[in-house]
Amino acid sequence: MREDLGRVSPPTVSKPLPAHQHPLIGRLLGEHHRRLNELVQGLGSPLHVVLPQVFDENLARMQRVLDTHHLQSTILFAKKANKADCFARAAAERHSGIDVASSGELSKALSAGVRGDRIGLSGPDKPERLLKEALLHGCLISVDSVNELQRLTLIAANLNQRARTLLRWRPESEAKSRFGHSEEELNQSVLLCLANPSTIELQGFSFHLSGYGLAERATCTSRAIDLCLQARALGLVTCNRVDIGGGLPVQYVSAQHWNRFLQHDHRTHYHANKSFSGFYPYGSEIAGANALEALLQAPTQQGSLAHKLRHNGIHLIIEPGRALLDQAGLTLFNILGSKQRSDYSIITVEGSSLSLSEQWFNSEYLPDPVLLGEPCGSAFNACVGGSTCLDSDMVSWRKVPFSRPVLPGEKLVYINTAGYQMDSNESAFHDAAIPRKVVIELDPHDHSMHWRLDDI
């Protein structure tokens, strides 16, 4: 419980939320800060830095968890989480897959070297062109409704193809969602699959949850396994896949700092007393591959969830996006200047909050940004605004406790922005250029830095 803040005026500055830094990021900011500064000067602000080496580590870590449990499994990188080509190529090189939801994403996945049979297609009422492309490349198609399944059946018949299909189920906890089949609709679609064996091959069921609770995801996974067993009993013998979507939490800041922040959070800690409907759980206790491990150990009536998957010959599909991109990128802004308010300053950066997408969902990207270079001097509390003409264009509404005052021309770094932050809402507002992405790799032996533009 928070103390009654009506009786005691709360501090007007937030508690610090120092962002975790992968060792590679630490070396970049420490040993290569001058080169990063030059890249921003030459390529523009904001500048997104993407790190495929870290993506590789995250992917390998998750695969080890799945292999330890001896599961038949596929990891599909959720392409929507970041548009950078280097991540799609990394998925291809590790023989992983990609989840797509548009012709553009499908084309980029194929161009990166991902085989069609390792591409999952999701999304509601997919256009005819997209369904045709997915059929011709042998993609696994997650069908959102009875009507979509009927359309897919006709398209597959016309192309003389057999559609590899999952039926997307809508759990009771997602009753307000516009996506997926209800239980009654699921029965209708299963009957359609039974009636059209030459054009539809039902391979299993998928679901997506909007939250990050592992217990609920385990319950839904167990239920999806049961759906497969019921479909097999009807004669759909190839029904052996369960796609549980993404939603594995990422820990951006320590759980200790996060809990302290939540305990003391107050609207006076934000510019214009801004309030928010909620935040991403930046300090999740269990995250990434550890969250996957905890999920697989969740209890069911047949032992652990991993045991139930193995025992029933179920192929597990996961679609991590943010979790594969954890620490795999950062964003640099050029500082244009600052102005003083009564007890804090407002920094203006070259760019806008459209390059930090959390702000456009009535939320805030909370991990503290840092100044590029060596910190020194006294404390300096400041929020961060973009360079557009919109009063609402705030990159950080929160009054961040910096280590020192900032100067024009310095660079402000937001760490761990690869997952959904960089390009979900990019815009050419004010005729500004779309921010560029730079792929950076560090030599594992001498830590020398190599960079290139990310371009398919």
Automatic annotation (TrEMBL):
Keywords carried by this UniProt record: Isomerase, Pyridoxal phosphate
EC number: 5.1.1.1
Transmembrane intervals: none
EC category: isomerase
Region (Disordered): 1-20
UniProt domain Orn/DAP/Arg decarboxylase 2 N-terminal: residue ranges: 60-277
Cofactor: pyridoxal 5'-phosphate
Domain of life: Bacteria
GO molecular function terms listed in the Swiss-Prot or TrEMBL record: alanine racemase activity
Pfam families per UniProt: Orn_Arg_deC_N
Protein name: Alanine racemase
